[in-house]
Amino acid sequence: MASKGKVCLAYRGGLDTSCILKWLINDQGYDVVCFLADFGQVWLLYLLCLYDSCYVGGGQMNYPLNDLQEEDWDQVCAKAKSLGASKMVITDLRKEFVEGFCFRALLCNAQYEGRYLLGTSLARPVIARAQMRVAQEEGFK
């Protein structure tokens, strides 16, 4: 089957995005470039937990931080390629995310329900902007 064109899929290697990757390739006939945004997720989680324990939880650390491990991007890349992705692009967005969003959010104490920092929602515009850069670099129309 001839390719319908190229698709840039935000991919993390989990069940959902892996199923979508196979569906786009096998059922829909697209050439898929996978995109992964590296925010230093492990360290971001650590900082959010530390903030939560110091400022919200009264000094109690209620998270198993000793279980945190660095992400294995090589494994994610290998999985995407084994499922049929034509390319895997991993972009380091730590500096852009922290300087452009996190620092400002901390300064204004941006929280959801007065308890949770807005890490995921703050990350979305950074991911979208970086994914669009990858699509342009790859010659998507």
Describe what this molecule looks like in 3D.
Helix content is 51%, strand content 16%. It has helices at 15-27, 41-56, 73-82, 94-107, 119-137, and strands at 6-10, 31-38, 87-92, 111-112, 116-117. The strands form 2 sheets. A 3-stranded parallel beta sheet has the order 1-2-3, sandwiched between helices. Helix 4 (94-107) packs antiparallel against helix 5 (119-137). The longest helix has 19 residues, at 119-137. The chain is elongated and about 55 Å long.
Summary of the model, kept short:
Helix content is 51%, strand content 16%. With 141 residues, the protein is α/β, with parallel strands linked by helices. 18% of the residues are buried.
Q: Unreliable runs, pLDDT <50, ≥5 residues?
A: none
Q: How many β-strand stretches?
A: 5
Helices, by number, come to: 5
- How much helix, percentage-wise, in residues? 40-55%
Question: Which structural class do the helices and strands define?
Answer: alpha/beta
Mean pLDDT: 81
Instruction: Please trace the helix and strand order, writing H or E for each element.
Output: EHEHHEHEEH
Shape: elongated
Radius of gyration: 18 Å
Distance between the termini: 20 Å
Largest sheet: 3 strands, parallel
Instruction: Name the strands of the widest sheet in spatial order.
Output: 1-2-3
Strand content: 15-25%
